[in-house]
Design brief:
This protein is of the alpha+beta class. The protein has 8 helices and 11 strands. A 5-stranded antiparallel beta sheet has the order 1-3-4-5-9. It has a 4-stranded antiparallel beta sheet with strand order 2-7-8-6, covered by helices on one side. The radius of gyration is 21 Å and the shape is elongated.
Length: 292
């Protein structure tokens, strides 16, 4: 799923292309992508795009007369900038937003359709906001207060859109590695030094990766938007040596979700329990890096 840095890269590319331009119309191939009917999607036609911004992990196009087009890419949705009037692909194309100088195409890989488009007024836009705070807008005390609102693992808390905006599994892994904290540590069990460490790691990681994603595209448009990057420290690095301490990066798998971490940097050498591995190996499951 595209997270804060990837959405910001999209917005960086979009602003120079669509802000101040007239949206000629919206073509929809898959009706399931539309989640609102009043106002109808045709009401977006011939309106000027006043701004392109982010709402959590959503892309928002502010139109004149108080309307907002909200695109949520979910897991497999992607945006492409193509020549004006480009055909919507029959296999994975969902919709197209036509402008005089090009067409913004919304696609979604796979058979499940989760991506969505909403056309709403300002009141409707507020209802789409899950309430998560932007990390850049918080101080350490406000960050700590949000951590303390629920008792869950740090990985789950960081990715809760009602608490923090724009963070998904990939960057939660990177944040926790940078903060030298276990992904299974409870959010309510942190001391002051650990909270400050996590706060700084969250701000620095999101800021740095936003700069990386934006600099990679330059004046172009994002073409390979993925949760993995060769410069990441632990996410997608299972089985590889940690760049900081050399310990082998480990993982926890729950269903289709995977958490990557370094036992040397984050868990004092402890191998966290993995449900599938524990069931397979039982008492032979390695519990420390020495056991490995």
């Amino acid at each position: 799923m595209p997270e804060l840095p990837e959405i910001e890269a999209y917005l960086h590319a979009l602003r120079s292309r669509i802000v101040g331009e007239t949206l000629l119309g919206v073509r929809v191939r898959s009706v399931s992508v539309l989640r609102t009917y009043d106002p109808p999607i045709d009401a977006a036609a011939d309106r000027i795009v006043l701004d392109a911004r982010r709402l959590g992990k959503r892309v928002v196009m502010d139109l004149d007369d108080g309307l907002h087009l909200v695109v949520h890419l979910m897991i497999a949705g992607r945006l492409k900038w193509l020549p004006q009037g480009a055909t919507i692909p029959s296999r994975n194309g969902l919709a197209a937003f036509d402008f005089a100088d090009g067409t913004l195409l919304l696609t979604e890989a796979g058979s499940r359709r989760r991506a969505s488009i909403h056309l709403v007024d300002t009141g409707g836009l507020r209802l789409l906001d899950p309430g998560g705070a932007e990390i850049a807008d918080l101080d350490v005390a406000e960050f700590a207060e949000r951590l303390d609102r629920e008792r869950h693992t740090l990985k789950r808390t960081l990715t809760n859109p009602q608490l923090f905006a724009g963070i998904g599994g990939a960057f939660a892994d990177e944040i926790l590695w940078a903060g030298r904290l276990s992904p299974t540590q409870m959010s309510t069990n942190l001391d002051r030094e650990e909270i400050e460490r996590l706060f700084n790691a969250t701000r620095d990681t999101l800021s740095r990766w936003t700069e990386i994603r934006v600099s990679e595209i330059g004046d172009g448009f994002p073409t390979k938007v993925t949760a993995f990057h060769p410069d990441m420290a632990v996410h997608g690095k299972f089985g590889e040596p940690c760049r900081a301490c050399g310990a082998t990066v480990q993982r926890i798998v729950h269903g289709k979700r995977e958490t990557n971490y370094c036992p040397g940097c984050q868990t004092d050498g402890k191998i966290l329990a993995d449900r599938a591995l524990s069931k397979l190996l039982k008492d032979d499951r390695p519990k420390t890096t020495d056991d490995l």
